[in-house]
Amino acid sequence: MTARRKVILAASFALALLLAMTVGTQWVFARYEERALTVPEALLFVMETLTTTGYGEQLPFKSGVTSIWAVVLMVTGFV
């Protein structure tokens, strides 16, 4: 496998993982927080988690499930 192909494969995997996390965040908030997030809001939440920026716009959580989801994002986002 060439270096270029490895880079493309890694970038594709990272984008797919980011998309899955964004969609998962939308589902968790709609199901357990009783409020729908737009795609940009869900992506913001994911990026804040992955970059350890914080959750200023999304707190407080209403459900323990949302907190667990945030933990899952933190653990799987540590690359």
Output the helix-strand order. Answer: HHH
Structural class: mainly alpha
Using the CA coordinates, give the radius of gyration: 14 Å
Looking at the structure, what is the overall shape? elongated
- Total number of strands: 0
Helix content: 55-70%
- Major sheet: none
Subunit arrangement of the protein:
single chain
- Head-to-tail CA distance between termini: 22 Å
What this model shows, in words?
The radius of gyration is 14 Å and the shape is elongated. The model has no long low-confidence stretch (mean pLDDT 82). The two termini are 22 Å apart. It is mainly alpha-helical and 79 residues long. Helices cover 70% and strands 0% of the residues. The chain has 3 helices and no strands.
Key terms:
79 residues; mainly alpha; elongated
List the helices and strands and how they pair.
Blueprint: H1 3-32, H2 39-50, H3 64-76
What would a concise description of this structure say?
The protein is mostly helical. The chain has helices spanning 3-32, 39-50, 64-76. Helix 1 packs across helix 2 (39-50) and helix 1 packs antiparallel against helix 3 (64-76).
